[in-house]
Amino acid sequence: MSNDENEIKGMKGRILSGARPTGRQHIGNYFGALKNWVSLQDSYQCFYFVADIHAMTTLNDTKDLELNTREMVLDWLAAGLDPEKSVLFVQSQVPEVTELHTYLSMVTPMGWLQRVPSFKEQLRANGDGMNYGLVGYPVLQTADIIIYKADTVPVGRDQVPHVELSREIVRRFNGEFGEIFPEPEALLSKSPSIIGTDGQNKMSKSLDNHIELAATPEETRARVKTMMTDPQRARRTDPGRPWVCNVYALHQLFSSEATQLEVHEACTNATIGCVEDKDLLAKSINETLEPFREKRRELENKPNVVDEALREGNEKAKAIAIATMEEVREAIGFIK
Ligand code: TRP
User: Fold this and answer.
1) Which of 77, 216, 314, 320 is the most exposed place for a label (fewest CB within 10 A)?
2) Residues of the chain with pLDDT under 50
3) What pTM was computed for the model?
4) Which protein residue's CA is at the shortest distance from atom 5 of ligand 1?
């Protein structure tokens, strides 16, 4: 599909976003990205992909690449990403992107990469052991976006410096070789960052402070039970402070207005304790997620759902990437 066709259909533009294959998605992934991705499908031409090459930058993430890719895509489908509306694909299935990455790397000064906050973090963590691929992470991310000539990139706040860098790389490349690529813009979702069950860090699988969308009701209850609440509420009779309590933060996402009011009042009056409060939260989460879980079970029982969604998506993505790369090689002046 070309950008012109989008205009004919009244679409706003072309979206691209991706996620590293982390397996089953958790409620932080859902509110941070997935929910937004689903809602963008009707107004944009959307491309969503599994960043499995990016997963290689941290090698311990490659053990279960295939399984994690399948589990993640199954969650995407169950959450409402629709292969009829969006192009769902896998980064490594369109290796043209690595070729573009190489060409972009030639117009990207090291200084730009060294300024990126994630580079500084990685340098602190790895020192001289930092791999070359990790340095070029945002260059590959730029290739991901522009090979499909996407103009809009829905991401979380932490990814904004990467998209800003993409714009600089595009300007440089276009300046050298002609106006080939649009300058992509980040689209920030209004969603709050979800804090994990430890009550301190952003929810993440690697910190094991997460609640999976596909968890069973029992698993969900068990996870909620471990949640940190207001640390000042040492005894059942102490009044609690919902505004500092992560259990309450999740009530605001999963519980009805009535339940929210009720627990807010009962917590501040100390008429319910944290244990009861958590029971109510687990119930709300389980009720909210049941339609997703049912859909996921349904999809799990059909053979090849993921393969079929990806086969089509990979093909569409690849056709566009091939066309872009022909244009790029021509513009650079390589022999034909
Ligand atoms: N860096 C993103 C993350 O860690 C994943 C990603 C790779 C991405 N390429 C992208 C996101 C292109 C948006 C656009 O979440």
Assistant:
1) 216
2) 1
3) 0.94
4) 19
